[in-house]
Amino acid sequence: MEALSFPRYNVAEILIHIRNKILTGADAKNLSKNDLYPNPKPEVLHMIYMRALQIVYGIRLEHFYMMPVNSEVMYPHIMEGFLPVSNLFIHLDSFLPICRVNDFEIADILCPKAKRTSRFLSGIINFIHFREACRETYMEFLWQYKSSVDKMQQLNAAHQEALMKLEKLDSVPVEEQEEFKQLSDDIQELQQLLNQEFRQKTIVLQEGNSQKKSDISEKTKRLNELKLSLTSMKEVQENLKAKIVDSPEKLKNFKEKMKDTVQKLKNSRQEVMEKYETYRDSVDCLPSCQLEVQLYQKKIQDLADNREKLTSILKESLNLEDQIESEESELKKLKTEENSFKRLMIVKKEKLATVQFKINKKHEDIKQYKRTVIEDCNKVQEKRGAVYERVITINQEIQKIRFGIQQLKDTTEREKLKSQIEVDFREYQTPHRNAVLNSSTANVQFPRMLEKIQNHYGKNQIKEECKKSPTIKHRSADQSVECQRELQAVTEKRLIFMIFELHWHYLATGICTVVGGIPQPSEGLLFLSVESIPSPRLRGNQDLWCHPSSHTMAEPLRQANDLFRLLRHECKRFRLIFVLDTMFGLAVADLHLLTFCNKKYRLQFIRIPVALEKEGRGENNLRTRRN
């Protein structure tokens, strides 16, 4: 570590750098030389290290006091005091090697030394300087990059605009498409005419050239023939020289003739040569003529193109003049319209100002009206609240009064029921007791009662009710004498039961429908007819009978209480019927026990008054229900 890669600062320089670069505000002002040298204070060093980590890594102050997520500690509250030091050491252990400090230990935080702390602070200050320099260069590059990106965006926008303009220039407007089509058709027609003229002229020139070529070929043939005739004449001349006569006269004549022929031949030859030269000159001039013709054709084509351009330019100039005139006329119209619109605008502004003034006035009136309405509503609401409170108090008083009235009605009904029961028992106790106990009187009174019951209910109805009995429901009445006797006995029992039913009976009804049963006629009975879903103890429809052991209702009702407990667990539907005949009487305690069962099991009591002795009552008055 002797060859350091960063400069070592003295205490004064370190103090200046820390005040300028690391600490801010009151911490920088309060920092002194004694805090760092000769005995550095751990609290000040912790603050400097935390601030340096905050500058470099952006670590906030509360992160040093938080438990790391990846570490599991059984008792985290023990670590609360040591958490800032441990977190600071973890962050500095990863930060100081970047500053070229590789021997940092936790003792440098807990018990710092002057030389080591000055070296650590020198490395941190050097790294912060290096970071700022790199950041400046990076910011310059970033600014250049942003400017280049902006320029590129501007150039792209300009490029897009240029492309749009090129598309507009290349594309023909919809209004000028018809003119463009007409001009293109005219250009095609002119091109066709020029091509036809050029073809005709080329055909004429080719025909002339072919004629001249044929003439030249004929003349060359003639010339060749003349050459052959010359050679043949030379041969004839030689032959004649061999046949020359020695006589001078003949020789002279022959020579003169020969001279004349030679002269003629020379003249003809000269003529032929002259013609040949003229033809040769004409043939030599033919390619130059063709070149000239081609040049003339090119010039004609250029002239035609120039003519077309001139015509197009003239047309465009005419169109532009027409457009200028039309636009001038439109401009005049627009100016006149603008003047008229300005006048209308002035008028409308005046109207708008008046309307706005009216609207503002209306708004003010509406606001004032709203204020008054809200004040009235508030007053009405206050009055309504007071009235509502009065109504609530009145309703509560009415409910209390109704509840008291209902209680009074219930008590009066109970008292009436008790008094009626006592009166009825006093009226019918002795005759019915004697009618049942005394057999002679029973034998005498039974036919009369039977006739009364038959007249009251009807014989067929009694037979049908008797047939419902479980003992004879599967037999016919005409089967045998025993069956008839059994039917008569059951009929008598049923009639006796109906007689006793017409006295004071109380039926305590349960949850479901009524299932009938036939009790014994001579006893006060408690029997229960059950209709239930099959259960382990009670299967199907059963009648549970409770025979009283005494002449009171206390024992049957206790048995009924036990039965109720059983049925509430075992049956879903049941019916309990209390049959009380008037022979044995009804005590007040028994009546209280009945009302107790009513409260406990929510039963319904049905009062069935006597109807046979009092013949004036109808069938509708036989049963009146009392709760």
UniProtKB/TrEMBL annotation:
Gene3D superfamilies: Ncd80 complex, Nuf2 subunit. GO terms for cellular component: Ndc80 complex; nucleus. GO terms for biological process: attachment of mitotic spindle microtubules to kinetochore; cell division; kinetochore organization; meiotic chromosome segregation; mitotic spindle organization. InterPro entries: Kinetochore_Nuf2_N, Nuf2_N_sf. This is Kinetochore protein NUF2. It comes from the Eukaryota. The lineage of its organism: Eukaryota, Metazoa, Chordata, Craniata, Vertebrata. Residues 4-145 form the Kinetochore protein Nuf2 N-terminal domain. One of its GO terms (molecular function) is protein-containing complex binding. It comes from Orycteropus afer afer. Keywords: Cell cycle, Cell division, Centromere, Chromosome, Coiled coil, Kinetochore, Membrane, Mitosis, Nucleus, Transmembrane, Transmembrane helix. Pfam families: Nuf2 (PF03800). The keyword rRNA processing does not apply. PANTHER family: KINETOCHORE PROTEIN NUF2 (PTHR21650:SF2), MEMBRALIN/KINETOCHORE PROTEIN NUF2 (PTHR21650). It is found in: Chromosome, Centromere, Kinetochore; Nucleus. Residues 149-344 form a coiled coil. Acts as a component of the essential kinetochore-associated NDC80 complex, which is required for chromosome segregation and spindle checkpoint activity. Required for kinetochore integrity and the organization of stable microtubule binding sites in the outer plate of the kinetochore. The NDC80 complex synergistically enhances the affinity of the SKA1 complex for microtubules and may allow the NDC80 complex to track depolymerizing microtubules. The chain crosses the membrane at residues 576-597. Belongs to the NUF2 family.
